[in-house]
Automatic annotation (TrEMBL):
Pfam families: Glycos_transf_1. Residues 325-485 form the Glycosyl transferase family domain. Keywords: Glycosyltransferase, Transferase. This is Glycosyl transferase family 1 domain-containing protein. One of its GO terms (molecular function) is glycosyltransferase activity. The keyword Glycosyltransferase applies. InterPro entries: Glyco_trans_1.
Length: 506
């Protein structure tokens, strides 16, 4: 039986959900159970990112790769000499690529990947207007073309093509007063059948059904990990399959009130929910809240998200004496829900009494809103005069080094589903001070043994615990060992028992 973990995309700077999926994939492979990660968004860079997660093409299926026939594809380098550029045109080298001219008129702008292969090609008409852009997969073929309105530059049409340049997926966009929505999608499936669709979710359902059919008579299991984009497409599958929703976040609108309106249609709509075989949450408290709220016969169970590899559990414990004195870290996206301004303000209060402290924040900002939260946080640090001791470190793949040198992790989120950073920090002997929120910290931190839980939003309490912790070296050593001990609950064998009980042998 094949297990598919469904999500939207795999980037170099992925979020906790993707990291949790990768950990689960490794666990399934370790236990000899076949599994793959399946993504629904176009991502021409994904195969370049796979090695970052110790994954191969055999571990990953993207919807656009699936319909293009490029789930596996031999990588090659496409140079400027491989392009169909008329001999009479002039090619000039510029920063990160080339510009192509017909006399004095610029016709093309070519950007290159660092390995010397073509990245994108922009085309210009006789008036100098940008008319279209080709996007190349990192493996060396044109995979998508966008066409633009020359009047205002908005996107009007997209074509997705196979390496042989045949088109299998087309999207049309229509200009509205305040937006440019996709109004029609034309898909040619792997059987050559044409579909006229309204959204990518419908295309994802078709892909999941075809993927399921390829497995033959076996009943495969599909686990949706990204609630807002893969739950409903999975539920709408027409072929026989086992369908599991795995929530990584809260399931209601008001993060402080579990009785507020349900967020996702896949559980608020009883007809959709009834087509699901199992619902998984990261914590027992969320499973209990969801069971009381939904009143459904669909089983709702809790399975830990954090998995600590055996090699990490067996590694040498690093005492506080070998760590960077006073080093506090946070591992969180620079987004509103992470409430990092509370962590910064609490640090500022603690720093006034202990100038040995420093605070490193690891995470990326939200480019979709112009990095609004990131700018606010940096302005706050400047206002508090903490630029020398509070550092924004950006995203890193090497959190192991970060945790092995840190003395404390702070988590000040408004809400969470599965704060993976807590388990990862504890596995490296780093105690955690966190707000008591829905959901996660209270289930993962043993208060007074592996860290501390403080009331949500109480900055003074957060600061007081930071001060208390660093003022007591004996307590620091005690919680250091307590963190290592707490991580044992999330060993591969312990977590696998949950998967066997509720999913594998159910």
């Amino acid at each position: 039986m094949m297990y598919y973990f469904l999500n939207n995309r795999l980037d170099a700077n992925s979020s906790g959900i993707e990291h949790a999926e990768v950990k689960r994939l490794k666990l399934f492979k370790q236990k000899g159970v076949p599994a793959k990660i399946v993504m629904c968004e176009y991502n021409r860079l994904a195969h370049r990112n796979l090695p970052l997660y110790e994954m191969t093409d055999d571990d990953y299926v993207n919807m656009f790769d699936f319909f293009a026939g490029t789930v596996t594809f031999p990588a090659k380098v496409v140079t400027v000499s491989d392009l169909s550029i008329p001999d009479e045109y002039q090619i000039r080298e510029v920063d990160k690529g080339y510009e192509v001219y017909d006399g004095n008129r610029k016709t093309m702008r070519i950007t290159m990947f660092p390995n010397g292969s073509v990245d994108t090609i922009d085309y210009f008409n006789g008036d100098g207007n940008h008319t279209k852009q080709d996007f190349y997969d990192t493996r060396g073929f044109k995979s998508m073309t966008q066409m633009y309105d020359t009047a205002d530059g908005h996107l009007i049409y997209e074509q997705f093509s196979r390496p042989n340049n045949t088109v299998y997926y087309e999207t049309s966009y229509e200009k509205r007063p305040n937006s440019y929505p996709a109004t029609n999608i034309q898909l040619t499936d792997t059987h050559g059948k044409m579909h006229s669709l309204m959204n990518t979710g419908q295309a994802f359902t078709i892909m999941l059904d075809e993927l399921n059919e390829q497995d033959g008579d076996e009943i495969s299991t599909f686990i949706s990990d990204r609630s807002n984009c893969s739950n409903v497409p999975m539920i709408n599958m027409k072929t026989p399959a086992r369908k599991i929703e795995h929530f990584h976040n809260i399931h209601f609108r008001d993060f402080g009130d579990p009785n507020s309106p349900i967020t996702y249609p896949s559980i608020s709509n009883n007809e959709l929910l009834s087509k699901t075989d199992l619902v998984i949450t990261p914590s027992q408290r969320q499973a209990d809240d969801m069971t009381r709220r939904l009143r459904t016969q669909v089983p709702i169970v809790s399975i830990p998200v954090g998995i600590v590899p055996d090699e990490q559990l067996n590694t040498r414990h690093i005492p506080m004496s070998e760590r960077m004195p006073g080093k506090i870290v946070a591992a969180a996206r620079l987004f509103y829900e992470k409430r990092l301004d509370d962590a910064i303000n609490a640090f500022a209060k603690a720093y006034r009494e202990n100038t040995m402290l420093s605070f490193d924040i690891y995470g990326y900002g939200n480019g979709r809103d112009g990095l609004k939260e990131e700018k606010m946080l940096k302005q706050l640090v400047k206002k508090l005069g903490l630029e020398n001791v509070v550092q924004f470190k950006g995203y890193t793949q090497d959190m192991e080094t970060v945790y092995n040198t840190a003395e404390l992790l702070v988590l000040s989120s408004r809400y969470e589903g599965a704060p993976l950073a807590i388990v990862e920090a504890q596995s490296h002997g780093v105690p955690v001070i966190a707000y008591d929120i829905n959901y996660g910290p209270a289930d993962l931190i043993q208060d007074g043994q592996s860290g501390f839980i403080v009331p949500s939003g109480h900055v003074d309490d957060l600061a007081a615990k930071i001060k208390e912790y660093f003022a007591n070296p004996a307590l620091m050593e005690q919680l250091n060992e307590g963190a290592y001990e707490s991580a044992k609950r999330f060993s591969s064998d312990n977590v696998w028992k949950y998967w066997e009980k509720y999913v594998i042998n159910a």
